[in-house]
């Protein structure tokens, strides 16, 4: 291309800049749907709607697994001993300090609802194992207690809590 | 291709890179400094438009393939899911479907341009043949893409087109079974069509690179049909051809967007919204509009094998065009008799397309046979004879003279 002395802005400069600006806006506009289409689609979002779980059939000391938004959820009907072990803990000894009361709903302390994914690298921990009789993750040896809190091993955080509420004494809605 | 001696990168980083992989010089000599005839008209913008459409089809196709399931039980539903659930899925689907139609529209304009101005003549024979190969690949890709929807038209188009090969004596039936992967069009067929539909556009891209390479070796043809003789006859590709291509592309995209956003149902066959049923053939099987002329040619011949030969022959004959047309004069601007036969040929092609939508009975059959005869006669009789007997108009002395007048 021939060079032009740029003492003043010419019409050509204006046209180049204007075309470039419109082109840039157009390119951004093109990218929006191309990138947005990879986000979860309407059917996936609909499948992730809240679910109701009936707690009636769960016996004392039993733990069940349900799936919500493709994640495993542990619902633990804790025994009296498990509740006491979870409450009588020196919080400063915990890698991720959290009192048991912050991990259950008031008045429903026998029900522990946590997301069953180890906070280290994502394996599903095994129930009623480990020295605290909580969960034990076989992948890299993380140990959780009866409140789902991390006690030993490489996992940095307690088992996560899903959003849930009690619609009645024997039914919860997760999500 | 000229060397990259005119390209001097400004920054040290670019100079370092240029010494190791001279892409900058290649792009510069091919698309910036490249000498372009100064008299090109807007019919020459369709090459750039075609490259753009190939990119659009590949990008929208890859994105659609993230949501499509190539199994007979799920294919139709997955397309409907794309239309309803996937974010912007409706837009991506219509962009891809109408992208195909616009792609073929542009390719026909591009081919008719080549026919009119003699762009297939010496030394551009290989360029033309590469173009015919691209066209054939496009037809295969478009056909397989349409099958993927797995509607009634998809299934029965697949059955009809694959059955064409059964006309081949001896190996026909075995060949068709091999194509199907079964005893009829079914899941194996759908799966392999998906794989090949994903593959062929990249093959097309490769042949397009050869096509542009062949073009740059010979240089572009131009409306006067005479080769550039001096620097006065050409302008650098950028900014002249670049901006002309961009404007042509913008107008083209307006038409494209009109279909996609305002009349998306216009070209889509209603029967393809019915899931494929192997037990029921629709009352009227019609291919997409860009195959209609060849469909009419196929149906006009009463013999199965000869009909198939006519179908493939009507495309294959294009490859021989550089040798069938014996005239030394390239551009129809200076060939008044050829021009008349050319426009009748265009009308014949459009007429054959219209006849492809009609049932093969009565006056439609007679018309199809007449137009098929003209189609082949144009290539085999008219073009060879015109070169010998036509009285052409005198050619201008140079391109710049034809544009600027004698004061050039």
Topology readout:
The complex is a heterodimer of chains A (175) and B (408).
Chain A: H1 11-36, H2 42-47, E1 51-54, E2 63-68, E3 71-77, H3 80-87, E4 111-115, E5 126-129, E6 134-136, E7 143-144, E8 150-152, E9 164-168, E10 171-174
Antiparallel strand pairs in A: 1-10, 2-3, 3-4, 5-6, 6-7, 7-8, 9-10
Chain B: H1 12-20, H2 23-32, E1 35-37, H3 46-65, H4 75-84, H5 89-117, H6 125-148, H7 152-163, H8 172-180, H9 187-218, E2 234-236, H10 237-262, H11 292-300, H12 304-316, H13 321-324, H14 336-355, H15 363-389, H16 399-404
Antiparallel strand pairs in B: 1-2
Uncertain segments of chain A: none
The total of helices of chain A stands at 3
Task: Count structural domains of chain A.
Answer: 2
Question: How many extended strands of chain A?
Answer: 10
Span between N and C termini of chain A?
Answer: 62 Å
**Helix-strand makeup class of chain B:** mainly alpha
Oligomeric state of the chains? heterodimer
Poorly predicted sequence stretches spanning 5 or more consecutive residues of chain B: none
Q: Any idea what the CATH superfamily of the largest domain in chain B is called? A: Cytochrome Bc1 Complex, Chain C
Order of helices and strands of chain A: HHEEEHEEEEEEE
């Amino acid at each position: 291309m021939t060079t032009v002395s740029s003492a003043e802005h010419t019409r050509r400069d204006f046209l180049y800049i204007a075309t470039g600006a419109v082109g840039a806006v157009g390119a951004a506009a093109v990218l929006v749907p191309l990138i947005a289409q990879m986000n979860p689609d309407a059917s996936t979002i609909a499948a992730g709607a809240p679910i109701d779980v009936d707690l009636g059939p769960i016996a004392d000391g039993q733990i069940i697994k349900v799936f919500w938004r493709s994640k495993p959820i542990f619902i633990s009907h804790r025994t009296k001993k498990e509740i006491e072990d979870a409450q009588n803990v020196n919080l400063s000894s915990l890698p991720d300090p959290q009192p048991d009361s912050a991990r259950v709903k008031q008045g429903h302390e026998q029900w522990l609802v946590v997301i069953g994914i180890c906070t280290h690298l994502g394996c599903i921990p095994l129930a009623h194992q480990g020295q605290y009789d909580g969960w034990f993750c076989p992948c890299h040896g993380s140990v959780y207690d009866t409140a789902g809190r991390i006690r030993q091993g490489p996992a940095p955080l307690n088992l996560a809590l899903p959003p849930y509420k009690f619609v009645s004494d024997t039914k919860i809605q997760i999500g | 291709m000229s060397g990259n001696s005119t390209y001097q990168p400004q920054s040290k980083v670019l100079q370092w890179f240029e010494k190791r992989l001279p892409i900058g010089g290649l792009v510069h000599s091919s698309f910036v400094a490249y000498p372009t005839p100064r008299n090109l008209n807007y019919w020459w913008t369709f090459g750039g438009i075609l490259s753009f459409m190939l990119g659009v089809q590949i990008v929208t196709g890859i994105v659609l393939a993230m949501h499509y399931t190539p199994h007979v039980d799920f294919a139709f539903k997955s397309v409907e899911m794309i239309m309803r659930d996937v974010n912007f899925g409706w837009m991506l689907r219509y962009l891809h479907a109408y992208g195909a139609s616009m792609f073929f529209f542009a390719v026909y304009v591009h081919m008719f341009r080549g026919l009119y101005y003699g762009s297939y003549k010496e030394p551009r024979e290989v360029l033309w043949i590469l173009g015919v190969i691209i066209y054939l690949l496009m037809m295969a890709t478009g056909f397989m893409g349409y099958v993927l929807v797995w509607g009634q038209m998809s299934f029965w188009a697949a059955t009809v087109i694959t059955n064409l090969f059964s006309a081949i004596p001896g190996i026909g039936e075995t060949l068709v079974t091999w194509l199907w992967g079964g005893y009829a069009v079914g899941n194996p067929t759908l799966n392999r069509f998906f794989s090949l539909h994903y593959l062929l556009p990249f093959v097309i891209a490769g042949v397009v690179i050869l096509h542009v390479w062949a073009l740059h070796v010979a240089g572009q043809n131009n409306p006067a049909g005479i080769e550039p003789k001096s620097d006065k006859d050409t302008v650098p590709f950028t900014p002249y051809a670049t901006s002309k291509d961009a404007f042509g592309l913008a107008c083209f995209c307006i038409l494209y967007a009109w279909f996609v956003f305002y009349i998306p149902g216009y070209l889509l066959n209603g029967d393809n919204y019915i899931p494929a049923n192997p037990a029921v053939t629709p009352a009227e099987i019609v291919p997409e509009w860009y195959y209609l002329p060849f469909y009419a040619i196929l149906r006009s011949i009463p013999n199965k094998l000869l009909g198939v030969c006519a179908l493939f022959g009507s495309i294959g004959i294009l490859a021989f065009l550089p040798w069938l047309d014996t005239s030394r004069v390239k551009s129809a601007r200076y060939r008044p008799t050829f021009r008349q036969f050319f426009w009748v040929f265009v009308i014949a092609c459009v007429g054959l397309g219209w006849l492809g939508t009609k049932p093969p009975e009565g006056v439609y059959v007679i018309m199809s046979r007449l137009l098929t005869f003209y189609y082949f006669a144009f290539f085999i009789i008219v073009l060879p004879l015109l070169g010998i007997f036509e009285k052409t108009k005198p050619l201008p002395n140079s391109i710049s003279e034809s544009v600027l007048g004698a004061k050039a």
